[in-house]
Amino acid sequence: MSRRAAAAALCGIVAVGLALRAWAFAGISGVYLADDTRYAAVAQNLANGYAPRGDAEWFGARVAFLWPVAGAFRAWGAGDAAAAAWPLAASAGSVVAAYLIAWELTGKRRVAVWAAAVLAATPLEVLVATRLRPDAVMPAFIAFAVWAALRSRRGGTRGLAWAAAAGALLAAAWSAREMALVMVPVVAAAAGRPDARRLA
Asked: Is this prediction's pTM over 0.70?
C-alpha cells in the first residue's frame, strides 16, 4: 500500500469513526452526583475563573482532562457538545495513534490501516468518546507515549527527544487520570525493545 493510499484510508477511517461517535452521542447524563455531571460542574467553574476547592472538586486537578473542557466551555458556552468535544478529539487521536504504533511495529501500512479501523469501530471506544469522562483522554495520551517510546529506540539526540516526549505524554495521561501510572511498564518496554521493524 502506498503512502498516499494509506493516508487516504486513515482519513476515511477517522471520518467514519467520528460519524459513529456522533451517532452514539447522548450528552451528559445529568444524574445527581454522576461523574460526568460533577466533571461538567468543575469545568464550568474553571471556565468562569474559579479554581477547584474542597473535596467535592478534587477532579479539577485532572488538568489534561478537565482544563481543555473548561476552555471549550469558555469559548463556546457550557453544553453537551462542548463537554464531549475534548474526549471526541482524544478518541480520534487514539485512532491515529493505533495506526502509528502498528506502522512502527511492523513497517506495513496495510496492517496499520487495519489497526486504526478496528479501534475506530470498537463499540466501547465509540461510547467513551462521547462521554465527559477521562476514559478516552487517558488512553490517547498513553498510546502516543508508546509510539514516542518506540521511536526513541532510534538512538542519538532524536532518540532522547522521543524519550522525553514519551515521558511528557505519560505525565499528561496521569494528569487526566491517576491510574495511568500502571502503564509505565508498557511504555518502558516499548522504549527498551530492539528496532521493531527488524522483527517483522
From this structure: yes
